[in-house]
Specification:
The protein has 132 residues and is mostly helical. The chain has 7 helices and 2 strands, in the order αβααβαααα. The protein has a two-stranded parallel ribbon. It is globular, with a radius of gyration of 14 Å. The two termini are 20 Å apart.
């Protein structure tokens, strides 16, 4: 896992905390990776942070009370991470960064299709924006 991959996990958990949710979903994971990519690669054209936050809230909502401790990665997020790791290994790689995490999460099929619509993009448009 690269530092950017670790940052994406941290951002996903921060997003959960900000919305009072205790479970990291694939949408949190993807948004965390997109935020890290936007922060680290200014040339990547992605939705704004505000648009990403609205899309995440539209799909996952907001909890009433803050969770105790760090949010846990839910089963769908863990499946997306496993699919991502398998894809990187099959390509002969060893490191998972924010880009690999974003693309792997998309490819896993675990992201709610409504999330893409709330971003104002199709899944293919988002993949193209990521440069793949």
């Amino acid at each position: 896992m690269t530092r950017y991959g670790e940052l994406a996990f941290e951002r996903a958990q921060e997003l959960c905390i900000a919305t009072n949710l205790g479970i990291v979903t694939p949408e949190h994971l993807l948004t965390g990776a997109l935020i890290v990519l936007a922060e680290s690669q200014g040339d990547v054209i992605l939705p704004s942070l505000e648009v990403m936050a609205r899309a995440l809230i539209a799909v996952q909502g907001v909890g009433e009370t803050a969770p105790e401790g760090l949010p846990m990665f839910g089963s769908a997020a863990r499946q997306a991470i496993a699919a991502c790791a398998a894809t990187v290994q099959q390509a002969g790689g060893t490191d998972v960064g924010a880009l690999e995490l974003a693309l792997g999460t998309i490819a896993s099929g675990e992201v709610n299709p409504m999330f893409y619509g709330a971003l104002g993009l199709t899944k293919l448009e988002l993949i193209a924006a990521l440069g793949s």
